Amino acid sequence: MASRPTSRPRSPHLFSGFLRLNYRWGPQMLVSILHRVTGDGMATVGTVLLVWWLAALAAGEAAYASFRDVFTTSTGSLNLLGWVIGVGLTLSLFQHMMSGIRHLVMDTGAAFELKTSKTFAVATMVVAIALTAAFWLYLGMK
Amino acid sequence: MGTGTSIGRVRGLGSAHQGTHHWWHQRLTAGANLFLMLWFMFSLARLSGFDYASVHSWLRSAWVAIPMLLLVVSIFYHFRLGLQVVIEDYAHHEGKVVLMVLLSLFTVATAAIAIFAILKVALGAAA
Ligand code: HEM
């Protein structure tokens, strides 16, 4: 690999100069980046939390209580960290799920027409926010 | 894939000698994740509470433990494939190999802990 010339274009080819993006911002580009950011966020923060949660549950009541204490106040409701992580992960999941469906649809060659593609990109974000709100409202109303 | 020799095109393996397996497995797991994560979110939302007793008795059921095991396998394989692409996009030269090894270690270690924990709760004596 070291013998390969380093001047060849790389993927993703983002910059054409200092802070000069090769792309013009638009919903499709935003959704593409969101798909990556949400996937990476869930794969790192989400994975560690899921594993910690499951391991605490398997370790017993005391370990589970210390896991809960990190994210809740003494009354048992979520603290600031709990809200940030909770809403962050659910919004990430629903955004990645919706932009993932968009990936699968576009893999078939569909929805590339300019207007459709833009509407589809915006729709993934609208639906993701709606599902996140619905999830937390449902939890709150129980 | 389209620019090689004709036998190369037939094999469809490209320069990584991997063909389309990576791409296809990312899609297969994406489909599985869609169902598993929807189930997971519904199941979480309908839990009677998030205290130890409620969550423990939830995970003890085979109807929860088995989907949870499938979820761990599908999601962890999916993000292992996904993060590989991210590394390939941004890391070059020797650092790339180190990151790939670390990624595999992270995936296998976290998956092992998650699977062990689920089995321990599901197969453990009634608390
Ligand atoms: C809920 C259902 C899900 C669907 C439908 C889905 C779909 C997809 C698809 C189609 C890709 C490929 C994108 C591409 O080729 O550029 C992808 C990438 C990825 N996914 Fe998922 N996914 C889901 C859940 C998850 C979860 C739960 C995680 C993490 C724990 C995750 C982590 C990733 C990562 C890290 C990538 C790589 C992103 C990139 O290349 O920029 N996915 N997902």
TrEMBL record, chain A:
Domain of life: Bacteria
Keyword Plastid belongs to the record: no
Pfam families named among the record's database cross-references: Sdh_cyt
CDD domains: SQR_TypeC_SdhC
Organism (species): Sphingomonas oligophenolica
Key words, A-Z: Heme, Iron, Membrane, Metal-binding, Transmembrane, Transmembrane helix
Cofactor: heme
Function summary: Membrane-anchoring subunit of succinate dehydrogenase (SDH).
Compartments in which it is found: Membrane
NCBIfam families recorded: succ_dehyd_cytB
GO process terms (BP): tricarboxylic acid cycle
Binding-site list for heme: H96
Family label: Belongs to the cytochrome b560 family.
Protein name: Succinate dehydrogenase cytochrome b556 subunit
Membrane topology: Multi-pass membrane protein
The protein's assembly and partners: Part of an enzyme complex containing four subunits: a flavoprotein, an iron-sulfur protein, plus two membrane-anchoring proteins, SdhC and SdhD. The complex can form homotrimers.
Chief localisation class: membrane
Residue intervals passing through the bilayer: 42-60, 80-98, 119-139
Keyword Membrane applies: yes
GO CC field: membrane
Co-factor binding details: The heme is bound between the two transmembrane subunits.
UniProtKB/TrEMBL annotation, chain B:
Species this chain originates from: Sphingomonas oligophenolica
Protein name: Succinate dehydrogenase hydrophobic membrane anchor subunit
An annotated Gene Ontology molecular function: heme binding
Function summary: Membrane-anchoring subunit of succinate dehydrogenase (SDH).
Subunit structure: Part of an enzyme complex containing four subunits: a flavoprotein, an iron-sulfur protein, plus two membrane-anchoring proteins, SdhC and SdhD.
Keyword Electron transport attached: yes
Statement: the UniProt record of this protein carries the keyword Nucleotide-binding: no
Membrane topology designation: Multi-pass membrane protein
UniProtKB keywords: Electron transport, Heme, Iron, Membrane, Metal-binding, Transmembrane, Transmembrane helix, Transport, Tricarboxylic acid cycle
Any one GO cellular component localisation term in the record: membrane
SUPFAM superfamilies the UniProt entry points to: Fumarate reductase respiratory complex transmembrane subunits
Pfam families (alphabetical): Sdh_cyt
Pathway stated in the Swiss-Prot or TrEMBL entry: Carbohydrate metabolism; tricarboxylic acid cycle
Annotated localization: Membrane
Cofactor(s) listed in the protein's UniProt record: heme
Gene Ontology terms describing biological process: tricarboxylic acid cycle
Membrane-spanning residues: 28-45, 57-77, 97-119
CDD domains xrefs: SQR_TypeC_SdhD_like
Top-level division of the source organism's lineage: Bacteria
